[in-house]
Amino acid sequence: MNDTPQSLGGKARAQRLSPVARSEIARNAALARHQKAEPDGMPKAVSQGSLSIGEVVIDVYVLSDRRRLIHKRGMARALGLKSEGGNAFMKTITSKGLGSVISDELKQKIANPIEFKPLIGDPAHGFAAEVFIEVCDAIIDAYKQKKLTPSQNFLGIQAEFIVRSAAKIGIIGLIDEATGFIADKRREEYRELWAQFIREECRAYEAEFPERFFDSLYRLYGLKRKDPKSFKHPRFFSKFIRKYVYAPLANSQGAILEDLDAKNPVVYANGGRRYKMFQFLSDEIGMPALKGHLWQVVGIAAGATDKSAFERAFYRAFPESIPLGITGDLFDQIDHDA
User: Fold this and answer.
1) Which residues contact residue 174 at a Cβ distance below 8 angstroms, ignoring those fewer than 6 apart?
2) Phi first, then psi: what are they for 263, rounded to 5°?
3) Can you give the chain as a three-state secondary structure string?
């Protein structure tokens, strides 16, 4: 087919455009074509799946116009917010402290989620994947600027997990593309790498309690770690931590622990709390005291041959912490409800 003057002029104009501009024009044209094909104007998912972020699994989609979406509910869950419909996400994002660092452009995107048709089920609302990263960046900025409330600090840490892990996956994908490596053949490897990066970020976070501390607990209780790489531990370890770490912290005789319990109450039927206790300690006072006390406990545990020996050595070091009216082996009173 011979080129017409009009088509030649169009090609010349296209060559003068930047790659970004050409990509945007092509994307808008594809979107217009799909909307024309769909009378209601609602885009449809052509593929969907699940993405694991730690223990959380969120729904993700690719639309017919090739936009990548995360379900609105998934945005909340990925950040550790408890919300079935995404309301907690919207409420948190628009809160005074966090809202002050979010640009007007991002606020517009958040206020106008994309309505689409999943492969199965009713129409849903979602956000472009890049919006999720922009939200995480804003949360990190608010966290570093100390604009989050104490009960929101966990958001900053979770957002850093996600952004750092996504960046690691991103650079691998860019190298694969630049070298002509076929991404589809590496889909499972990408999933494994993502899970690995998330685990590494979680482990760095859990490092406020050093591995030697938990190694000591396993040894004192005569337990074998099923998975040395896991950052999960028996639930009853939390009772040990309350009694020997938080209760005697800074010679407070339980006052700090009472304050932490008030800020971070039990909210789950199994006795679980929404956040880690140390997230409510200040960087200036609380965290240095916690780290110093932890290493004292680690040192006492290292020299103890069993649970009873640890307890005797601990109360020699912290006599003010001996519970009133209690004698004998206090380890017998710790329930093994792992």
Assistant:
1) none
2) -75, -30
3) CCCCHHHHHHHHHHHHCCHHHHHHHHHHHHHHHHHHHCCCCCCEEEEEEEEEECCEEEEEEEECCCCEEEEHHHHHHHCCCCCCCCHHHHHHHCCHHHHCCCCHHHHHHHHCCEEEECCCCCCEEEEEHHHHHHHHHHHHHHHHCCCCCHHHHHHHHHHHHHHHHHHHHHHHHHHHHHCCCCHHHHHHHHHHHHHHHHHHHHHHHHCCCCHHHHHHHHHHCCCCCCCCCCCCCCCCHHHHHHHHHHCCHHHCCCHHHHHHHHHCCECCCCCCECCCHHHHCCCCCHHHHHHHHHHHHHHHHHCCCCHHHHHHHHHHHCHHHCCCCCCCCHHHHCCCCC
Q: Please answer whether residues 332 and 306 qualify as being in contact, where contact means their C-beta atoms are separated by less than 8 angstroms.
A: no
* Cα–Cα–Cα angle for 189, 131, 33, rounded to 5 degrees: 90
Instruction: Give the CA angle between residues 150, 152, 156 to the nearest 5°.
Output: 110
Residue from 83, 66, 72 nearest 109 by CA? 72
The residue that leads in pLDDT, 8 or 306, is 306
Average pLDDT over residues 37-56: 77
Please, what is the end-to-end C-alpha distance for the chain in angstroms? Answer: 74
What percent of the chain shows pLDDT beyond 70?
67
Q: What is the mean pLDDT of the chain?
A: 75
Which range among 138-142, 204-208, 315-319 shows the weakest confidence by mean pLDDT?
Answer: 204-208
Structure confidence at residue 4 (pLDDT):
54
User: Which residue from 209, 292, 277 is spatially nearest to 246, judged by alpha carbons?
Assistant: 277
Joined tokens for residue 315: 């109360």
What is the pLDDT at residue 118? 92
Does the pTM exceed 0.70?
no
Residues 128-134: what's their mean pLDDT? 88
Domain ranges across the chain: 45-205, 211-333
